[in-house]
Amino acid sequence: MKKEYYDTYEMLYSEYVYENDFRRRRPFLYDEYYIIRTIRKSIDNADKSNSLRPDAKYFLIVNFHHLIVRPLFEQRPYKDRQIEKEFTELEGDIQDDIATIVSETKKEAEGEISGHQIMRTIDKVWKNLKTTRLELWG
């Protein structure tokens, strides 16, 4: 990867949470921003060894946000307090899935982990990911 793109992905990842800070907010315990922060924390926790390249981190945050979280927020009746349980489960599923993806990728990787390696691992562990139970994409 060219250095300038490495730096660009690093910036995009670092600013991703803040970029969404002032977007649509809904009066609900689990707003979209809260879940994005969960995704970010999950990625950072799974990468304590700093082996994920910025493109891999950005790949994870964008995909979990736009392919799992956003469709759920577009379809759910946010005034219904019964869905708090669903989003509590989603938060745990996201944390577990990211940990699984990163740990499985690390088993086969040598050196820094790219977004492409993350993509290949997701394909391999797809059936074991908890968020696939939602049948949002795939």
Task: Describe what this molecule looks like in 3D.
- The chain has five helices and no strands.
- The protein is mainly α and 138 residues long.
- It has one domain.
- The chain is globular, with a radius of gyration of 15 Å.
Write the layout of secondary structure elements.
Blueprint: H1 3-19, H2 32-46, H3 54-75, H4 84-108, H5 115-125
Helix pairs in contact: 1-3, 2-3, 2-4, 3-5, 4-5
Q: What is the residue-averaged pLDDT?
A: 85
> How many strand elements?
0
Helix and strand pattern: HHHHH
Shape assignment: globular
Class from helix and strand fractions: mainly alpha
**Terminal Cα span:** 28 Å
Descriptive labels:
single chain, 138 residues, mainly alpha
Give the structure's gist in a few sentences.
The protein has 138 residues and is mostly helical.
